[in-house]
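FORM 12-B: Structure-to-Sequence Request
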């Protein structure tokens, strides 16, 4: 159990009578979130310059600030402007620099919403947005457009309508609770949502995306964990961006979740001036794995408004992957993705390892720069696939699931399909033929 001198100092500056048990009470933390510049300065014992204060006022009019006392306590005031905690939590004037390529809802989450609280983009899984509030407002939030609106928690009726959609849509086998942060809901409310989802036969997996282990680790209480473990199979993805965030308190929170049998993943965002460094990323992923968290995704920063100062070229992400793949344990390596603007979903990006190939050999290079070959089989008897699994001798015994139809490039590859090309709608050459 840790309570640093800085934390004790901040706690008492908030409330003279505050002690360690207040500090470790997540509701106390939430009641004392830092939302104005004056308190921010007072608690850290610093003075921002005039420009900094002006920027704060202008930026927070559009994108408000909220920082938990705990997350604030991780800021290194001696290197304020380059501190990764500060940069993720304190408003910058640059957030108001909106580029012409920026979009308010780049992922079209609002348009892909067939029912309240639901974003249904992929065939077999949906996002269920159950909370509209967060403990800390990440400056790089992709849903920044919503952070301004009145922290309203979607009501039970809206969530019920979302759940009804899931109930009547049998292809959904995976539900992701997101928000906002689902863990800002009470244990009882969360228990109700999880119970409703669990009562749906076709929902095989429930996932929760939460940043509380990073910004409010005290939220991971024994009673919360007792609720969660009733609803297995349950997976949790959290959002660490920098190794500094893996404090003793954060590690304890992760251990509680892992000990409850919950597989843990991490989604990082590649952020200029925060973690755009192969060595930081390597330290981060290795620390995560040491705490039983599997790095899941590394996101290229979205095109949401107000994030331009956080964006890096895609090459930076490739460079980071280049420094991880082969150099460290395979399960330390996240999948680097660009979430395609317009709702195209996550697209994985990788360095190239396939250099060339012939009819019976591929030429590859490894992480050390060694160029090597893989000899392919001289004869391979492919099993012709007409998508009729019952007549195939590969023994896929499908008990209930329908075989889904093929889509995209997969369709071009399928034996059973006559399609030989995918042509964008409105292709002029094709229009001339008609
Ligand atoms: C990220 C995301 C998912 C989940 O994608 P996975 O690749 O399965 O983690 C589902 N729906 C939406 C809208 C998403 O953005």
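FORM 12-B RESPONSE
SEQUENCE OUT:
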């Amino acid at each position: 159990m840790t309570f640093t001198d800085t934390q004790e100092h901040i706690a008492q500056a908030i409330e003279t009578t505050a002690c360690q048990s207040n500090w470790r009470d997540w509701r106390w933390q939430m009641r004392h979130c830092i939302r104005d510049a004056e308190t921010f300065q007072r608690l850290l014992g610093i003075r921002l310059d005039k420009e900094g204060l002006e920027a704060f006022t202008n930026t927070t009019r559009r994108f408000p600030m909220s920082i938990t006392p705990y997350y604030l306590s991780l800021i290194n005031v001696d290197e304020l402007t380059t501190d990764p905690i500060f940069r993720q939590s304190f408003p910058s004037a640059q957030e108001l620099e909106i580029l012409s390529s920026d979009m308010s809802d780049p992922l079209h989450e609002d348009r892909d919403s067939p029912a309240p609280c639901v974003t249904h983009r992929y065939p077999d899984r949906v996002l269920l947005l159950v909370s509209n509030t967060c403990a800390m407002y990440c400056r790089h939030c992709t849903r920044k457009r919503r952070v301004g609106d009145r922290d309203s928690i979607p009501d039970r009726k809206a969530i019920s309508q979302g759940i009804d959609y899931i109930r009547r849509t049998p292809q959904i086998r995976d539900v992701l609770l997101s928000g906002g942060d689902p863990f800002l809901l009470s244990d009882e409310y969360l228990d109700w949502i999880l119970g409703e989802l669990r009562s749906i036969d076709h929902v095989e997996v429930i996932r929760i995306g939460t940043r509380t282990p990073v910004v409010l680790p005290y939220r991971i209480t024994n009673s919360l964990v007792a609720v969660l473990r009733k609803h297995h199979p349950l997976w949790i993805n959290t959002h660490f961006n920098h190794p500094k965030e893996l404090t003793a308190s954060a590690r304890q929170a992760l251990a509680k979740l892992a000990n409850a049998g919950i597989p843990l993943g991490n989604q990082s965002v590649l952020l200029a001036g925060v973690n755009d460094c192969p060595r930081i990323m390597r330290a981060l992923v290795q620390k995560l794995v040491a705490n039983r968290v599997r790095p899941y995704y590394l996101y290229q920063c979205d095109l949401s408004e107000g994030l331009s100062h956080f964006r890096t070229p895609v090459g930076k992400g490739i460079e980071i992957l280049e420094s991880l793949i082969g150099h460290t344990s395979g399960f330390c390596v996240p999948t680097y993705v660009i979430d395609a603007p317009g709702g195209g979903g996550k697209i994985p990006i990788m360095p190239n390892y396939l250099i060339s190939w012939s009819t019976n050999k591929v030429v590859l290079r490894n992480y050390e720069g060694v160029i090597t070959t893989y000899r392919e089989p001289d004869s391979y008897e492919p099993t012709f696939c007409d998508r009729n699994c019952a007549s195939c001798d590969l023994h896929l015994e499908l008990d209930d699931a329908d075989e889904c139809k093929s889509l995209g490039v997969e369709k071009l590859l399928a034996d059973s399909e006559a399609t030989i090309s995918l042509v964008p709608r409105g292709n002029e050459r094709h229009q001339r033929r008609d």
